[in-house]
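Quick illustration, no need to memorize.
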Amino acid sequence: MLPLPRRVLLQLVVLSVFSSHPNSFPILAAAGGGKGSKRTGNEGRSGQRCTICQRVAAEAATVWSLAKTTKPGSPYFYIGKEAKGQAAEEQVVEVVSKKICNRNVLSALPNPKGYALHHPTLQWECEDLMEHTSEALVDALTLGENMASFCWEQDVCGSSDAEMFDFVPEDDDDEEEDALKNNKKSKKTNAKKSEL
């Protein structure tokens, strides 16, 4: 057996060290996708998949909060009518698909990268997104996960994509609650003053 040339031995040593400690060579570690690398999302053919996903997640959170509090229908069967006992999970997927995956809503979505929009492609992209992520969407809703990060967890949005929608549910009676709290506080302070 012939002795290996010095250059080949050096390459073998470097490879063995690199394979056991990938962070020991910062240049090689950065090229391999270390902690500092940027994640790119799956923008799809339309380039709007991240925006569509965020809109779907925001709408799903709203629909879920309504669907889990409403009853599916009357417990009684009427003549000629079947029970409308659709589960909340099925309601979310159906309502969100109908509400978001239509051309009017999709054409009104923000377009942060300024892509030319082809409406049939947007609609196909939305339907495809619902088909592939609806199960994960329902799981996230039932587990009470933060919907703002859903699209990033599904690798639809990348690290350079920004949050386009407000995921905090609106509370219509905030002003009423604040007024009640202030009223209670003023009554307590007035009662303390009268005691003194």
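The first helix runs from residue 6 to 20.
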